[in-house]
Amino acid sequence: MSELNNIALKIIGKGKGILAADESTGTMTKRLESVNVPSTPKNRLVFREALFSSTSMADCIGGVILYDETIKQISSKKNKITELISEMGSLPGIKVDTGAKVLAGSPDEKITEGLDGLRERLKEYYKIGAKFTKWRGVYNITKEFPSKLAISSNAHALARYSALVQECNMVPIVEPEVLMDGEHSAKDCYEKTSNVIEKCFEELIFHKVDLKGIILKPNMILAGNMSKNKISNNEVAKLTLKCLKNCVPTEVPGIAFLSGGQSELEATENLNLINKYNDTNFIMSYSYGRALQQSALKFWSKDIKNIKGTQKIFNHRAKMNTLAAQGNWSKDLEI
Predict the structure, then answer these.
(1) DSSP 8-state class, residue 211
(2) Residue 217 annotated in active site
(3) Are 162 and 209 spatial neighbours (Cβ–Cβ below 8 Å)?
(4) 335: Cβ contacts below 8 Å, ≥ 6 apart
(5) 217, 276, 308, 319: which one is catalytic?
(6) pLDDT tens profile 32-49
(7) Which domains does the chain have, with CATH numbers?
């Protein structure tokens, strides 16, 4: 078993999942302002450190994706954030793309940038303590989109990124996110997501990426958020599994779903059902941002000094998702 495969299994094995705490300063500012907390570097760190030092880090959270600002901050205990996360029993990771920009040739679509100088940045993050990385490609669904140009361009970038990350002895999280914004049906989402994932793996293989040393972070198969034709949670689970069984090579150790605009309960329930029906060898886990943090953030905003109370809320949500990652969650367990 390779070292990269070992790291991937530590992150999402045994029901563990990933805390996506890699919101950019702009996104984190919106989140904090939505709960009337000023967005300062100190406040951003106070909230994140409350999560990173919670007891669920050892039992539920196998990895934490950080943002550039956070990975370079010092905790209240005067140690590096990467050291704090490691001491709590989790692995630190880092978002390395520089964001989605307008795609030349198709201005209504996006291409993720950040390949320039990436090799040097990866070496720096590795020295700081990062064990894995994340890069997100985004695709919107309409009758015309995602275009072949967007699918191909983003797959190529994800593959080049992954090759550079493995060269630096870290595990790349490959995140092709087909957005749920729009009126499209679940059938549309299934077809477009299949096209996107197939092209990603074609490029990953072409770029000689070791598939045993990656984690795929895809969307679930959902109808658009403005669709009149929603499908049941059971159908979400079955379609998502069908898509991944058809598109993902068996060497990939695991899949960590993004929550993609689902509520906390929806993200947990759908993950649980996916694991109930999972007849593959893939680990099916979670890499959630809002769906792990939202309740904790609302609670914390009422009294930012109440760290223990905030951690209690976060620990519950992490526990629920870890049970769902093993197909053992039920609504009765919710507070």
Answers:
(1) G
(2) yes
(3) yes
(4) 316
(5) 217
(6) 999 999 999 999 999 999
(7) 3-333 (3.20.20.70)
